[in-house]
Amino acid sequence: MMKHTSELFELFNSSSKKSIKWKKYFPIYEKLFKSYKNKNITFVEIGILDGGSLEIWKKYFGKDSRIIGIDNNPKCKKFQNENYEIFIGSQSDVNFWEKFFNEVGKVDIVLDDGGHTNEQQIISLIQSVENINDGGLHIVEDAHSSYQKHYGNPYKYSFINFSKKTIDDINSTFPNIKNFNYKLNKSIYSVEFFESIVAFKIDRNLCYENILLENRGYKSNNIDATIDVLFMNFRNRFKFLYKYKIVQKIERFFIKFFYRYKSKKLKKYFK
After folding, report:
1. Which residues contact 235 (CB under 8 A, 6 or more apart)?
2. Which of these, 55, 62, 83, 138, is most buried using a 10 Å CB contact count?
3. What is the fold, at CATH topology level, of the domain defined by 7-206?
4. pLDDT digit string (tens) for 152-193?
C-alpha cells in the first residue's frame, strides 16, 4: 500500500482537531493546491464538522491566506477566530450564496466537502463559478455519492452527470458545435476527474471561441484517403450544385452515416 509523505498528510495527522479525509485525497490536494501556497488567496471550504480541516488549510496555504468555512450547523460558528471566518447557511440555498459573495467578494478556491446530494453539489458549483477569480478552482469531494443509492443515485441528473455534461459544454466553444441552453463555458475552461473528486478550473481568458491559425510553413499536398476526399473531388467537379442547400444536406448525411458505420467496431469499448 502506498505511503503518504506529503505536507498535507502530515498536517492532517498532527492536527489538534478532528478531521476526516479519504486517503487518496492527499496526493490530489498536493497536485491541485501546490501553486497556491504562501500566496494571498481566499480559500473557502464547505462543510466544517469539528473544524480540523480549517486548521490544516491555514497552515498549508500560509499566513497571507484568507480561510473561510461554511456550514449549516450554527454551532460551527464557535470555530471562528483570527485565522478563519465562519459563515452559517445552506449550500443548496441560492439566497445564501448571494449574501455570502456580496460580503466576501471574489475567492480563489472553493472546496466542497459539505452535503453530498446532487442538489447541494450542483447548486454550490453554479453559484460559486462566477465568483471565483481567474486561475482559481472549484473542487467537489466525495463525488462517489453520484453512484450511491443513499443519495438517490445513479440518476440522470446526478452531480457526476452534470460534470460530464460540462465536458460537452466546454467543447461547444469550438465553432459550429451545438451549445446548451444552460452553460458554464464562459468561466470553466477545464475539468479534471479523479476518484471521488472533480476539479473545475476557472479562467475566462481561455473561454473564447477557438480560432484556426495558419503559419507560413510549407504546405503538403498529401490528403488522407477518406470519404472527405471523395466528396472534395465531387465538389470540385460540380461546384454549381452546391448552391442548393439540399445538396449540402445530402453530403453531410452521407459523411455522418459513413463515420458512424465505421465507428460501430468501437462499440465493445463502451460496454
Report:
1. 242, 251
2. 138
3. Rossmann fold (3.40.50)
4. 999 999 999 999 999 999 999 999 888 888 999 999 999 999
